[in-house]
């Protein structure tokens, strides 16, 4: 099986994050366009069933009884023919070889499972015990199910996945438009020094909602395999700049550490990442993730940006220079009031760069105010 004919092979899970990563890798391995998916669909069309373990180690070997040791190169047609045998199949961990066929799997019967059919119950238990993904092809139900670390995912037709993906993409477009609106309003408020915790929380809220929807679409892209290329391009275009903007907002507004509380930028980003969709609907919850008390009264408290976000909009301004400017002036309002001579006192800022910063901030201030009031 050529390297360009198969996706990256899944490994074993390790914790919750590892389980999610393994599910995504497993979906990629059985996505349309891969040789494995071709073989599974051949099995389904041939009106036979199948039980395939996607990986092998000593634990898998000890679970196998009977069958044949093959150790042959994987092809879709071989998988189809071997599934005619009354038994399971074991693939190598990189999915390049068929190691065993006609195998009876004997997993630990005490492993809990909610599955009822013999093949599905075995697939669920084997997956939980060995840590490798297991695919079950049901002859009677006409479906392909993927078992990964206690999770079960039915592989759907590309048309059904595309339909849901396009709905999610339309939702993402609306959320992105709203994000652009609140981000523009925040820029204007920053220029006028009228920002409140509510304004910052609203932008962070929209950024996280856009990321949640984008992550959902990214799952569809993985499931679609080669059929998801156009969707991937659309997603990439829509979310361009979202991650940098998210970090810049937090860097601008994460509260200064105090004796009672302190939160770093990374900690605030991690807290925002943990919020569910329901939690994101509550602005006090978002404010709390940013490091503010989170009470309704706090939302109307005035805050001032450090200037990272607007400085990042100045063309050809390196990140190291942005850090020095913020450290030197301490806030956006002082940066806006700084003259070319003042800017040149910062290490690494010559006359040309100082003029570029001064003119860039002036243009941003003018355009932000015009967009808000005109």
Automatic annotation (TrEMBL):
Residues 1-20 are annotated as: Disordered. ATP binds at residues 87, 118-122. Its EC number is 2.7.7.85. It is an enzyme of class 2 (transferase). It catalyses: 2 ATP = 3',3'-c-di-AMP + 2 diphosphate. It comes from the Bacteria. Pfam families: DAC, DisA-linker, HHH. One of its GO terms (molecular function) is DNA binding. Keywords: ATP-binding, DNA damage, DNA repair, DNA-binding, Magnesium, Nucleotide-binding, Nucleotidyltransferase, Transferase. Its cofactor is Mg(2+). Residues 20-158 form the DAC domain. PANTHER family: DIADENYLATE CYCLASE, DNA INTEGRITY SCANNING PROTEIN DISA. Homooctamer. Interacts with RadA. Has also diadenylate cyclase activity, catalyzing the condensation of 2 ATP molecules into cyclic di-AMP (c-di-AMP). c-di-AMP acts as a signaling molecule that couples DNA integrity with progression of sporulation. The rise in c-di-AMP level generated by DisA while scanning the chromosome, operates as a positive signal that advances sporulation; upon encountering a lesion, the DisA focus arrests at the damaged site and halts c-di-AMP synthesis. Participates in a DNA-damage check-point that is active prior to asymmetric division when DNA is damaged. DisA forms globular foci that rapidly scan along the chromosomes during sporulation, searching for lesions. When a lesion is present, DisA pauses at the lesion site. This triggers a cellular response that culminates in a temporary block in sporulation initiation. Belongs to the DisA family. This is DNA integrity scanning protein DisA. It comes from Streptomyces griseoviridis.
């Amino acid at each position: 099986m050529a390297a360009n004919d198969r996706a990256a092979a899944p490994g074993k899970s390790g914790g919750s994050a590892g389980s999610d990563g393994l599910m995504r890798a497993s979906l990629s391995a059985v996505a349309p366009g891969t040789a494995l998916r071709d073989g599974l669909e051949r099995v389904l069309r041939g009106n036979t069933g199948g039980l395939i373990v996607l990986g092998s180690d000593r634990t898998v070997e000890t679970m196998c009884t009977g069958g044949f040791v093959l150790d042959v190169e994987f092809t879709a047609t071989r998988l189809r023919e071997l599934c005619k045998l009354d038994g399971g199949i074991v693939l190598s961990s990189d999915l390049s070889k068929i190691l065993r066929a006609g195998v009876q799997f004997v997993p630990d019967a005490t492993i809990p499972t909610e599955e009822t059919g013999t093949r599905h119950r075995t697939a669920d238990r084997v997956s939980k015990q060995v840590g490798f993904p297991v695919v079950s092809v049901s002859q009677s139900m006409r479906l392909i199910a993927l078992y990964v670390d206690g999770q079960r995912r039915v592989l759907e037709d590309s048309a059904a996945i595309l339909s849901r993906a396009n709905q999610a993409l339309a939702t993402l477009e609306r959320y992105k438009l709203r994000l652009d609106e609140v981000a523009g309003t925040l820029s204007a408020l920053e220029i006028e020094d009228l920002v409140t915790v509510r304004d910052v929380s609203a932008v962070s809220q929209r950024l996280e909602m856009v990321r949640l929807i984008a992550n959902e679409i990214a799952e569809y892209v993985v499931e679609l395999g080669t059929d998801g290329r156009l969707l991937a391009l659309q997603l990439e275009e829509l979310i361009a700049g979202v991650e940098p903007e998210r970090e810049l907002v937090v860097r601008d507004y994460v509260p200064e550490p105090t004796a009672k509380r302190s939160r770093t930028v990374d900690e605030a980003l991690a807290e925002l990442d943990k919020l569910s969709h329901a939690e994101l609907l509550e602005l006090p919850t978002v404010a709390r993730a940013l490091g503010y008390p989170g009470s309704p009264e706090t939302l109307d408290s005035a805050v001032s940006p450090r200037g990272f976000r607007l400085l990042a909009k100045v063309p050809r301004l390196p990140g190291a220079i942005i850090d020095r400017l913020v450290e030197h002036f301490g806030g956006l309002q002082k940066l806006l009031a700084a003259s070319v001579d003042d800017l040149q006192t910062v290490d690494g800022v010559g006359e040309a760069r100082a003029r570029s910063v001064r003119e860039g901030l002036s243009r941003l201030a003018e355009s932000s105010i015009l967009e808000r009031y005109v």
